[in-house]
Amino acid sequence: MTGLAVDDAAWASTWRPRAVGDKLLLTLGLVLCALVLPVWPGSLLVGLTAVGLALGPARVPARVFARAVRLPLAFVAVGAVTAVVQVSTDGIGWAPDAAATGGALVGHALAGGAAVMLLATTTPVSDLLPALRRARVPAAVVEVASMIYRLLFVLLISMRTIREAQTSRLGYSTARRSYRSSGLLAAAVLTRSWDRARRLQGGLAGRGMTTDLRVLPEVLPSSRSFLAGTVLGLTVLCGLTVVLS
């Protein structure tokens, strides 16, 4: 268990042994369909397909998938509101085509977000980083992503340790104490994480680590049947959209 619910779900998913390229092809295809196809019924079909694959064949827990999409849903809601509200000399009001614009924005965003979450809940970051290197993504970008991923666990461990100590001292027994303990927790986590990151950098530099940290990636074989099913499924999805629209 890594402490990150999405990462834990990815490691436990039945699709984890599948090649990253296979899952990337499926995800990119669904995202492209979500962007290109009309909201009705294209985005609806894409969203249902992504959720169905995640909860069905991939065996991602429904609770984890629902928690993973909460923040994207909030972001989409805020974006939809800003897109349908207009400011003029008469004041603030709804745009003339508010319903159509807001519906299209929400539909495309939710469908594409569900497709991306399908990849996130079935593919650990440790599998994605070697795939990015093989795709010739700049090494600096991959290294920054790798360092941020490692520092997340430093933050989680620090936060969990400090919060347990505060709870044992009744730091959250009242609203006033909770407010004060939360501020102290944020300050302590940031300073401790910064110190640990600095020591990690110093240790790597002392060992002569002047380039990116390379590891031996696990080779996951590609599946021709999965690729064929992906192409066939995307084709059927596009065909259904044309027929039903």
Automatic annotation (TrEMBL):
Cleavable signal peptide: none
Membrane-spanning segments: 24-56, 68-87, 99-120, 140-162, 226-244
Keyword Transmembrane set for record: yes
Membrane topology: Multi-pass membrane protein
Pfam families per UniProt: CbiQ
Keywords, in A-Z order: Cell membrane, Membrane, Transmembrane, Transmembrane helix
Primary localization class, coarse: membrane
Source taxon at top rank: Bacteria
Protein name: Cobalt ECF transporter T component CbiQ
Chain's gene name: cbiQ
